[in-house]
Design brief:
- By secondary structure, this protein is mainly α.
- Helices cover 64% and strands 0% of the residues.
- The protein has one domain.
- The two termini are 43 Å apart.
- One of its GO terms (cellular component) is plasma membrane.
- One of its GO terms (molecular function) is hexosyltransferase activity.
- Its main location: membrane.
């Protein structure tokens, strides 16, 4: 006899949205594995396989494929002179920085100066990464056996890759659990070609996983815990602090400033706990990241590089231009959040503010796509649009390595500056396309796939179903949440 609890579990499973039911691209793609999902999904003849376990296995497989893509560099190209690591598109910062930042010499990050003979550059004297990322790098060096320089650098890449694979699994699980009714949205993160290609280029995936965990905790109505994770993510990479801005405007509109205050306070405390010891004991080493970021010139992948090279005029004030553009874009996002007839979802505003940074920044490394990946899935979980955007990012991934092969190689095999500008433009247009789709969903909520079942903001935590108390322009829109329909407590 079926118990009441079993029936409730079945009901909850039936409420889950399956992408093959609502997304034609997902339904078409499912033909490769037997067609769209039925009413009851059995994988391998067992109910043990739930969405989280399936997606964890998928992302591990994709991560392994990404590591295999770096195989030619692992065997030799990282350490051979010339352009082979770029021509084979398998470059990674990790093995190069093992020696260049003193990990192979047992230097202590932020405390020990890096000799010019080691770093190969007179401009870097301390590790130029945020503190928590520096700790991640140091932990990986602890488990790396010191042998010859080449073998140790390879082992260092393997150690970091193992730790980053854990981050990838955490990322997928957190995205899948952020919207309980749409766990399969995490599958796009797991299958992302951009994640597979860029996960082991640098250490960004660590901050991305912490950010996704913070978003998940916010969706569970735990703003203080979410703030801790956002603060830790900001201690690993600077961009997650922008999520606090997104939360501010939405909490202002919904009258949830106390929850925002809890998130802000815990984020500041977490950031200080990580950074303050290094600030007090190694101030110059701690400041290296911020000095490097401020003085870094126009670099690969940015809009400003196109402008500078097309005009043949160096942009001496690129910091001012980039900052001004960022402020204008963020002001536009804030206005959108406060003027829209219906309050935007947290995933939408978070995606737009981080996209504003991507578009205005003076550099765009290929792994920066990871910053947007979980937010894009939360903002616009449509496979067609996500695949269009991912295609432009893969094109840029190939474009930057072909450009570096042209610049560093003696035979100049690769992309000329004009061709590379097209690759940058494709990436920028891909981000702008996804931004346009998200803005359309905000202005025309009937097009928002997340809200088509009557939900308000399933990832919004305390924002979900809240009434607006501060709106600019039109009168506030009544929240439409599934819980209201069940309880009969429609707002009037």
């Amino acid at each position: 006899m079926t118990s009441v609890r079993d029936r409730e579990d079945d009901d909850r499973r039936e409420l889950r949205v399956r992408p093959t039911d609502e997304d034609p691209v997902a339904a078409s793609g499912s033909e490769f594995i037997g067609g769209p999902a039925g009413r009851r999904i059995l994988i391998g003849g067992s109910r043990w396989w739930n969405p989280l376990r399936v997606m964890a296995l998928v992302v591990i497989g994709m991560f392994a494929l990404g590591m295999a893509q770096k195989a030619s560099c692992y065997t030799q190209d990282w350490f051979l002179p010339g352009d082979l690591q770029y021509a084979h598109a398998c470059y990674s910062d990790i093995p190069h920085l093992y020696d260049q930042r003193g990990f192979g010499s047992d230097l202590v990050p932020y405390f020990d100066r890096i000799p010019d003979s080691v770093s190969g550059s007179g401009s870097v004297h301390y590790l130029e990464y945020p503190v928590l990322t520096g700790l991640f790098m140091e932990v990986a060096s602890w488990v790396t056996p010191h042998d010859t320089a080449t073998k140790s650098a390879q082992a260092y890449w393997i150690a970091n890759s193992a730790m980053l694979m854990v981050c990838a699994v955490v990322l997928v699980v957190c995205v899948a659990r952020t919207n309980k009714r749409r766990p399969w949205d995490g599958l796009f993160v797991a299958l992302s070609p951009a994640l597979a290609l860029t996960a082991t280029i640098n250490w960004d995936l660590f901050a991305v996983a912490l950010t996704a965990a913070g978003m998940m905790l916010w969706s569970r109505g735990r703003p203080a815990a979410a703030g801790v994770l956002i603060g830790l993510a900001t201690a690993a990479k600077l961009y997650p602090v922008l999520l606090l801005g997104a939360l501010l405007v939405l909490c202002l509109r919904a009258g949830r400033l106390r929850s925002f205050g809890a998130a802000l306070g815990s984020a500041a405390a977490a950031w200080l706990i990580v950074n303050l010891p290094v600030i007090l004991l190694a101030q110059h080493g701690w400041a290296e990241f911020y000095t490097f970021s401020r003085t870094r010139p126009t670099d690969y992948g940015s809009l400003w590089l196109i402008i500078s090279e097309r005009a043949r005029i160096p942009l001496s004030n690129v910091n001012a231009y980039a900052t001004a553009m960022m402020l204008v874009l963020c002001a536009g996002v804030a206005a959108l959040a406060l003027f829209a007839r219906r309050r935007p979802r947290i995933g939408q505003i978070a995606f737009l503010v981080v996209a504003a940074l991507i578009l205005s920044n003076k550099v765009y490394s290929p792994q920066y796509v990871l910053w947007l990946l979980p937010l894009a899935v939360l903002a616009r979980p449509r496979w067609r649009d996500l695949l269009i955007w991912q295609a432009t990012e893969v094109l840029y991934f190939l474009g930057i390595w072909m450009r570096l092969a042209y610049v560093t190689g003696t035979k100049h095999h690769g992309l000329t500056s004009d061709a590379y500008h097209l690759a940058i433009a494709a990436h920028l247009l891909g981000v702008l396309y996804l931004c346009a789709m998200v803005v359309r969903d905000i202005l025309l909520p009937q097009h928002d796939v997340v809200r088509q079942d009557g939900a308000d903001d399933p990832a919004g935590g305390v924002l979900d179903g809240a009434q607006d108390v501060f709106v600019l322009g039109a009168a506030p829109h009544e929240p439409k949440h599934a819980a209201h329909a069940v309880s009969g407590q429609h707002l009037t």
